[in-house]
Structures are given as structure tokens and as C-alpha cells.
Design brief:
Blueprint: H1 2-7, E1 12-18, E2 21-27, E3 30-32, E4 37-38, E5 45-46, H2 52-64, H3 74-77, H4 91-95, H5 113-116, H6 127-134, H7 151-165, H8 169-181, E6 202-205, E7 210-213, E8 229-230, H9 232-243, H10 250-256, E9 271-272, E10 277-279, E11 287-294, E12 297-304, E13 309-315, H11 321-332
Antiparallel strand pairs: 1-2, 1-13, 3-4, 5-8, 6-7, 9-10, 10-11, 11-12, 12-13
Helix pairs in contact: 2-7, 2-8, 6-7, 8-9
Length: 333
């Protein structure tokens, strides 16, 4: 496994644990190129859409407490002008990417510069900031018609958390998820005032053959669809919090890890639960994972209930953690 990790060229962190025992721990690359600060096990990495899973757990907590229902309609929760968004869209449809709401990030360039040309990324610091971008776009398809991955849906879910709890969504997640699990280095931080230990995300420019940071390619602060900073150790604590039912009742975790949408056409992205992707295992228990990708960010973490393995892969160079995960499955599973 050491050779696989080294040969992968991963610049970032890898952490593989089985039933509490650390099998492999690996760090490589610089968190800060200019100052030659290396990535370590304590480095905080932006994890992009991986943090949708945190929002999902927040919503499921509210449902478990009876403060919200899967089939509650968006129009009955948010007392604001939804624009062209169908007010009958349900919480379940938002969770499972079957809502059809307009996705603000559906036609952007690889480095996201197209998206921020009209909406400067330094102004995106809340869910409402993003909501204003997609509110007047047409629905992509009738609510509930099909599965299609959707960033805007999770922005709306974070707004639901804020409406019901009266707290900013990231404050709610810190109090009810991160603090409960002991995820002391995880949080949603603003790019112009990052705390210590955060890795800079890097892009390689073919025109100038050099690396530059991703500060103009992502929102200034994470929102419901992504953007939390995490460490490999904190992600392990999050999985343990779910599996030990510190965050949700056992029946809700089972439902979260069960196929809720998708047609299975893709072997890795064919099914979706609540905030997690699901790999079908015909002769065993399904594998669940969360993932995220942004310019200068790639993140993947997987739980295999068949052997107790939890794998966490984080990169601040957009390295191919998906290819590495396939090799890890082949080697260990």
C-alpha cells in the first residue's frame, strides 16, 4: 500500500483505518508552496462537496426531532420569493438530487471563472448570496422526475436549517455535528481570514506553466453545497459519530446509507442515499462514500461495512483521488 500511495503522486493526505486501527497514514506535497510548508496529518483541506454530507446530517437531525418532514414542501418552509423554483419541491427531493431546481453551477468552466464573471466570488459568503444567482433560472425538469446531481438543492437545504433553527447553517453544524464528534479543526472559514494550518488550493496554468492559488475560483466562504475545511482525522471522527449513533438514531443512519435515488447505470455514481453516494454490493453490504471536487480541491472518503475500512483522501492540487481509491479497493478489499 505504501508503494501505491507513493506511486499515485498524491499531494495531500491519505488515511486508512480498519475497526479503529490505523493501517496507513500518508502526507505529501506543500500546503503552502511559496513558504515550503508541507502538508501534515493536521493540515486542514477544503473538501468542496464532501461537506454536503454534513448538511444532510443536519437536515436528518431536524427530521428525527420532528421539526421537519421529508415530504415538507419548500414553499411552506421558506417565507421568501422563490422566483421560478417550484414551491412544491420537497425536502426529500432536495436531499436526493431529484428536485429539478436550477443548478447555479451547471455550465461553468473548469476553473469556475465563467461563473464568477458576473457574480464576483469574493461576494459569495452566504447561502442567500448563491440563491440570488439561481432563483430566476428555469427549473431543469419537473420535481421528482429523475436523479441529477444538483448543488443548488443543498444551498436550499442549508437555508432550511437556518430558517428552522434561527442559526447560520455553519454555526448549527458546528454545535450539533463537529463539536459532538470532537472535530476540532473542521469549519467553514472565509478565504480572506483563514485560521492557521489551512492548505492553499492550487491550479496549474498551462499558459504560464506554474501554480497559482484558487482564491478566484471558489466562493469566499463555503455554503450549503460545499466548502468546509477538514482534516483526515476529523473525517474519521465524523464517520465514527454516525456509526456510533452520536449524530442520528440507528434507523436514520440506515436510511441515510440506503439507496434513495439513481438508476445504477454508473458503478460508482449510480446510486445516492441522503448526502452520500452508494456503491452497490450484490453479495454484501453496500459501500457508502462522500466526495468533493473544486478547482484546487479533491476529496473522497469511503466507509466499507463489509470489512470495517474507512478511507480518507484529501488533496489541495486537484489530484485524482478517485483513481487512487480504485487501487486501494483492489489492494485491500
Amino acid at each position: 500500500m505504501d508503494k501505491i500511495l507513493k506511486d499515485s503522486g498524491l499531494r495531500g493526505n491519505a488515511y486508512i483505518v480498519r475497526n479503529g486501527e490505523v493501517l496507513f497514514e500518508y502526507s505529501s506535497g506543500f500546503a503552502d508552496i511559496a513558504n515550503k510548508i508541507p502538508n501534515t496529518s493536521e493540515t486542514r483541506f477544503a473538501c468542496a462537496s464532501m461537506s454536503k454530507t454534513f448538511v444532510s446530517v443536519g437536515i436528518l437531525q431536524l427530521i428525527s426531532k420532528g421539526q421537519l418532514g421529508f415530504d415538507d414542501a419548500l414553499g411552506g418552509i421558506l417565507d421568501l420569493d422563490l422566483g421560478t423554483i417550484d414551491p412544491a419541491v420537497t425536502v426529500r427531493q432536495l436531499l436526493t438530487h431529484t428536485s429539478g431546481v436550477p443548478d447555479y453551477d451547471d455550465e461553468t468552466q473548469d476553473d469556475a471563472s465563467g461563473l464568477w464573471a458576473d457574480y464576483p466570488n469574493y461576494k459569495i459568503r452566504s447561502n442567500m448570496d448563491l440563491f440570488r444567482i439561481f432563483r430566476e433560472k428555469p427549473m431543469m425538469y419537473p420535481a421528482g422526475e429523475k436523479f441529477q446531481y444538483n448543488n443548488s438543492g443543498y444551498v436550499l437545504l442549508a437555508m432550511v436549517i437556518e430558517k428552522i433553527t434561527g442559526m447560520d447553517f455553519d454555526v448549527y453544524l458546528k454545535k450539533n455535528i463537529f463539536d459532538v464528534c470532537g472535530m476540532e479543526r473542521t469549519g467553514y472559514f472565509e478565504f480572506d481570514r483563514l485560521p492557521s494550518g489551512c492548505a492553499t488550493g492550487y491550479l496549474y496554468g498551462s499558459t504560464y506553466e506554474d501554480y497559482r492559488s484558487n482564491i478566484y475560483s471558489v466562493a469566499a466562504k463555503g455554503t450549503g453545497d460545499g466548502g468546509a475545511f477538514v482534516t483526515v482525522g476529523d473525517i474519521l471522527k465524523f464517520w465514527n459519530g454516525l456509526l456510533e449513533h452520536k449524530l442520528l438514531p440507528e434507523d436514520m443512519v440506515t436510511e441515510m446509507f440506503s439507496k434513495q435515488s439513481g438508476d445504477g447505470a454508473d458503478p460508482e455514481e449510480g446510486y445516492y442515499g441522503y448526502g452520500v453516494w452508494i456503491i452497490d454490493v450484490p453479495d454484501g453490504k453496500d459501500i457508502v462514500y462522500m466526495q468533493g471536487s473544486d478547482p484546487g480541491v479533491s476529496a473522497l472518503s469511503e466507509y466499507n461495512p463489509n470489512n470495517g475500512l474507512i478511507t480518507v483522501l484529501l488533496s489541495n492540487y486537484s489530484d485524482n483521488v478517485w483513481s487512487l481509491m480504485r487501487k486501494i479497493r483492489k489492494e485491500i478489499y
